[in-house]
Amino acid sequence: MAAPEEPRAMPAPSSSEAPATCSLCGSPDLQPLYEGVHDRLGVAPGTWTFRRCASCRSALLHPCPSPEALKSFYPDVYTFYPEVSSSGTLKSVWSRLEYYVFYAPQYLTQTRILRSFLRSHVRSHASILDVGCGRGLRMVALKQAGFEVAGIDFDAGSVRYVKETLGIPAFVGDICDIAQHLPGTAFDALTAFYVLEHVTDLVGTLETLRQAVRPGGWIVAAVPLTDSVQARLCGRRWSQITEAPRHTLNPSQEGMRRAFARAGFSRVEIHADATLSCAAVLSLSLTPRATTSHLYAGSSWRTLANRIAGGLLSLLLVPACFVESHVLRRPALGIVFAQRGDEPTAS
């Protein structure tokens, strides 16, 4: 099962009060969307509610927990990495196979998308800071593609692995700590893959990230998109909705454009993420117990059977998701390229 690697949230400080306006576009017109949503991982108790912004059509968790409360809603095993299971077990064999068959191709595709876009907008061997880097699997692909990479994540174990095992510079901290760890450093690009849907103050987070990018540089953010075909078909069962409350928002393409514009970015383009990643999101909507958490935190053989079934379903769904992303242009997962608007990009 090859769902996109989800880091633990790295929220910027924010009030836990229910939003009076859309956190993306600022519209006050928030309408009921879904009620009684259960956390598909079973970590957060109770039920959750989403509202739809009538202006940009994004979905917003209502009310939104505080950043401190959000940290308690993540299971011990949330993000996939090849060593997630004990060596010598059947699950460890599967995790290695899963990495090479499902995850590595996704990272390579994402790297090709980034390289194709950035090579005409930034200098050769561009410097990239990966925000919410996790175990650094994506950074390995970026480094192999010729980028100068560093990472930041608030999980100390992940940062230690990135530094000691992968040999890539990394720092423990959240978004607000970037300037402290890297004073005076301005990167050509910041990548934030599946981070922004977890934050409680999106525009404030983008403004903070903007300061770590050189004038004319880029933020590259991957997010789930609630105006996708599969989101509309699956409704409240869509896997990105049942990630409540860890997903505090599920933006639309228009919502992302407006949020970046409000944060001071002058140019925004949205590209589809890897088709296999989009297929995995749809597969998880149909096989909700095929998650990383269910498999690697559980002990039953049924969890492995569910995971295998989910992986096979992901492969079967690839053609439909290719049409969704590249023909209908309504991908389930989008990669947003946003340029800091102070100065034109250097050649």
Could you describe the 3D structure shown?
The protein is of the alpha/beta class. It has a single domain (30-340), classed as Vaccinia Virus protein VP39 (Rossmann fold, 3-Layer(aba) Sandwich). It contains 11 helices and 11 strands. β4, α3 (137-144) and β5 (148-153) form a beta-alpha-beta unit. α2 packs across α3 and α9 packs across α11. The N and C termini lie far apart (40 Å). Residues 11-18 have low confidence and may be disordered.
SSE pattern: EEEHHEHEHEHEHEHEHEHHHE
- Which structural class best describes the helix and strand composition? alpha/beta
The total number of structural domains is 1
What global shape is seen?
A: globular
CATH superfamily: Vaccinia Virus protein VP39
Which key terms come to mind for this protein?
alpha/beta, single chain, 36% helix, 347 residues, Rossmann fold
What would a concise description of this structure say?
With 347 residues, the chain is an alpha/beta fold. 36% of the residues lie in helices and 20% in strands. It has a single domain (30-340), classed as Rossmann fold, CATH 3.40.50.150.
Secondary-structure topology with pairs:
Elements: E1 30-37, E2 48-53, E3 59-61, H1 67-71, H2 90-118, E4 127-131, H3 137-144, E5 148-153, H4 156-164, E6 170-172, H5 178-181, E7 187-193, H6 202-210, E8 213-224, H7 229-234, E9 249-250, H8 253-262, E10 265-272, H9 275-286, H10 292-297, H11 301-327, E11 333-340
Parallel strand pairs: 4-5, 4-7, 5-6, 7-8
Antiparallel strand pairs: 1-2, 2-3, 3-9, 8-11, 10-11
